[in-house]
Amino acid sequence: MKISQTDLPGVLLIQPRVFADARGCFYESYNRSAFVEVGIDPHFVQSNVSESVRGVLRGLHYQWPSPQGKLVSVLAGEVYDVAVDIRRGSPHFGCWTAAILSAQNRRQLLIPEGFAHGFVTLSEHAVFAYQCTALYDRAADAGIRWNDGRIGIDWPVAQPLLSDKDANAPFLDEIPGERLPEYAA
Fold this sequence. Notes:
By secondary structure, this protein is mostly beta strands. The protein has a single domain (2-24, 40-177), classed as Sandwich (Jelly Rolls). Helix content is 5%, strand content 41%. The protein has two helices and 13 strands. The strands form three sheets. Strands 1-2-10-7-12-5 form a six-stranded antiparallel β-sheet, with no helix packed on it. Strand 3 (18-21) and strand 4 form a beta hairpin. The radius of gyration is 16 Å and the shape is globular.
């Protein structure tokens, strides 16, 4: 497993070791011992899968309180995956990083608690998997507008397909401080 730091401290790009031959391939999508060995120890309590067609944008989502860290990957297709630091007081507040995740490159993104997350589907169809460090909590469910100019994400799709919830999410500056996680140095 190869781990790379992204532009945002704590958001990690993970490349699992793949064993391939004429029959196909095998790789471990998660091995707690291997993660602990390199100083990462998330405790996953929920695993989710979503399917999307080309141009679907999901996000930017987060939970507060009851924040969720996520380990995300793509089982079929390709997505442009984004994490945004929304921790009040963080030196990186409002900054974002992105990676292309696909079934072919098998990369994963580890997104810690305190970050918003979203992705847009680049392929005709994508199956997106994510493991979460907290259970889904409807009362804590929150989002930020995907095209918030303050954040300035360079999405590769100009007119994404959005849910009503995502299309009408508030801008980061409209969210009261108590509805955002706090940075702990």
